[in-house]
Design brief:
With 147 residues, the protein is of the alpha+beta class. The chain folds into two domains: 41 residues, Arc Repressor Mutant, subunit A (Orthogonal Bundle), CATH 1.10.10.10; 74 residues, 2-Layer Sandwich (Alpha-Beta Plaits), CATH 3.30.70. The chain is built from five helices and four strands, in the order αααβαββαβ. It has a four-stranded antiparallel β-sheet, with helices on one face. Helix 2 crosses helix 3. The protein starts with a helix and ends in a 17-residue tail after the last strand.
């Protein structure tokens, strides 16, 4: 991956709606060359897809939670199936260490938070933290220069 590929990734992470023409102009590259590079990045799996970042607050999800789950009382498969069905859970990561899973969830209010926690309690030990502030809510991710 060269500097041009890293520049493409940076621009697309900042604005995934940039057209091939806009990318071409910004990086002084022909449209056919830009198209080839984008296709190659997608075929290699570097670009997995394109999506919109949604403001949780502006869709009524006013409370962001980080939930630690340990001491599972059910199988991993059963727990993972359950969290996949929970629409308020926006990320779930199985991790090493004393905690088995870290969950990121967004709820509208304290009552919704209580209900989500109540639904999780039968599955293991739950430790919930409410996010007060996110100094790094999103970051452009680029490969090391050597890649």
């Amino acid at each position: 991956m060269d500097k041009m590929d890293r520049d493409i990734l940076k621009l697309l992470q900042e604005n995934a709606r940039m057209t091939i023409s806009e990318l071409s102009k910004e990086l002084s590259l022909s449209r056919p060359s830009m198209s080839e590079r984008l296709l190659r990045l997608q075929e290699k799996g570097v670009i997995e897809g394109f999506s919109a970042r949604v403001s949780l607050k502006n869709i009524g999800k006013n409370i962001l939670l980080l939930i630690q789950v340990s001491g599972l009382k059910v199988s991993l498969h059963e727990f993972e199936d359950m969290v996949k069905r929970e629409h308020e859970i926006i990320e779930c990561h199985r991790v090493t260490g004393e905690v088995s899973y870290f969950i990121k969830a967004a709820v509208s209010d304290v009552n919704s938070m209580r209900k989500l926690i109540d639904r999780l309690i039968p599955y293991g030990t739950i430790n919930t933290s409410t996010v007060l502030n996110s100094p790094v809510p999103h970051r452009v991710i680029l490969p090391d220069s050597e890649v």
